[in-house]
Amino acid sequence: MRLIEKIIQPSSTHSATVIFFHGSGDTGSNLIEWIKFLLGRNFDLPHVKFIFPTAPVQRYTPLNGEYSNVWFDRKEIAIDVLECRKSLSAIYETVNELLNREIYGCSIPANRVVVGGFSMGGTLSLHTGFHLNRNLGGVFSLSSFLNDRSIVYESLENSSAQPLPPLKMFHGQRDTLVPINWAEKTFEELTKRGIKGDLITIRNAFHELKKNELLDLEKWIYEILPPLDNEFQNKL
Fold first, then answer.
1. Is 198 marked active-site?
2. What is the model's pLDDT at position 28?
3. Membrane-crossing residues (predicted)?
4. Number of domains the chain contains
């Protein structure tokens, strides 16, 4: 399945890619506009392509089965319910196509690709970087969580030892849709399984993006995906 995507092309040589998944009911275009509203600009990393895909329209159980732009279905928004693995499996194929297009089609090494997202999109990014493809450069999640018995945990436990992508998590302390203790539990479970990273809590933030959060994220992406030496030389 080919997704509708909005792409911010690099202004210099393309040597890295970030895939940013939106939250449930949203679109890639709206996520770009939200970021632009908060920052007053787009993300500003000249060598990085930013891809903002839009989730397919499908029935979503938490909306009483109504159609919505969602990455996968789930029984309810709760940490202690089982994942809908059949629904997740369907989006895995689409995400792998997106990754392969960058890695093989655009010749971007896997360790120069970072995936992340907000809310449901952050959950998808955790599945992507720690279950589907552990060779990626990094994973970030904003206001997200994994279910208690997530396939991600199983996958990490059953995998052979290898370097794992670093993780950056952000979460609002006043989030009522996804309580912060869900993020804390997710981070704890991931670190117990070898993931290294940070969980940054944001004071007075609900289930939302914040300017300082995005600035910190942009800085982290730059650290994970710095310009290559020849890109520096080309600017001299």
1. no
2. 97
3. none
4. 1
